[in-house]
Design goal:
Elements lengths: L14 E7 L6 H9 L4 E9 L5 H9 L5 E6 L5 H10 L5 E4 L11 H9 L5 E5 L12 H18 L11 E4 H6 L9 H12 L3 E5 L15 H16 L21 H4 L8
Parallel strand pairs: 1-2, 1-4, 2-3, 5-7
Antiparallel strand pairs: 4-6, 5-6
Helix pairs in contact: 5-8, 7-8
């Protein structure tokens, strides 16, 4: 190795895991046990999105057992994006990962998800259910078609060759996601964040992940109306949202420092 080459710094306790929850009292304990066993873990941020089944009590029981667990609540069910927005604002880690509470995604795969960031190659990593077929429950074909179409349309707008923008597994450098101005609602986060990281020209990677899908009888929540909304949001965030309106302050990427003083002086104009 030449003197000019740098070995990627091994980050200790750099990982923040954000878990949005809504009526997941049965599966949350299993998810938390796996997350708390992860290497590099700094904190787990649980946001209870107005649950009515005892989820909040389950989450709070872990707070008393492990100082790395934080819990916040929304007064009423406001959707996954609202829960994530609150959760991101509470994080401190150099890397932030989204983890669903329903066991559709296996937390033991998070080390592979964040590896490209740890090695200094990536700013953002998506876990793809389609890049290489790993363990995946066979479920709704119409969902598969909708996902493929939304990803295709998003790729046309962003010029990113993604395979799965609707994946629940996304990892970000903390500076990027904490500076992002998130304005969508419901399940709109997936489309919005993809458009905005493309505008920022992040180094984006995908890795294959497993997917243990649920049926609607088992509690799956996303529906047809969410897919229709996603179509509109692809156009909205790619065509009618500028880079300056996407971030409070432009994060550093691949050693290049980006800063817009005019943004920081008008944060209140974009914080809604």
């Amino acid at each position: 190795m030449s003197n000019d080459e740098k070995t990627p710094e091994v980050l200790v306790d750099c990982l923040s895991v954000v878990i949005p929850v809504y009526n997941e009292a049965d599966t949350l304990p299993q998810v938390l046990k796996r997350v708390l066993a992860l290497p590099h873990l700094l904190e787990v941020v649980i946001v209870d999105d107005g649950s009515t089944d005892g989820t909040r009590a389950v989450a709070n029981s872990f707070v008393s057992r492990d100082a790395r667990v934080k819990v916040s609540t929304l007064p009423k069910n406001s959707g996954k994006t609202a829960a994530l927005k609150l959760g991101f604002s509470m994080t401190r880690g150099d890397i932030v990962v989204v983890q669903d509470a329903d066991l559709e995604y296996d937390p033991t795969e998070i080390p592979s998800l964040i590896q490209p960031i740890l090695e200094g190659h990536a700013d953002v990593v998506y876990g793809s259910r389609f890049l290489v077929r790993k363990a995946a429950r066979v479920l709704y074909y119409y969902h598969f078609l909708a996902n493929k179409f939304l990803t295709f349309l998003s790729n046309l707008m962003t010029n990113l060759n993604m395979t799965d923008i609707e994946t629940g597994y996304k990892a970000f450098r903390g500076e990027i996601i904490r500076n992002m101005l998130i304005t969508s609602s419901g399940f709109g986060f997936e489309v919005e964040v993809t458009a905005k990281i493309a505008k920022l020209k992040c180094a984006v990677y995908e890795i294959p992940i497993s997917y243990y899908g649920r049926t609607y009888e088992q509690g799956k929540k996303i529906g047809f109306s969410d897919g229709v909304l996603a179509l509109w949001l692809i156009f909205r965030f790619n065509l009618f949202c500028s880079l300056q309106n996407s971030f409070r302050e432009l994060p550093q990427l691949q050693g290049r420092s980006h800063h817009l003083p005019e943004l920081t002086s008008n944060l209140s104009d974009h914080s809604a």
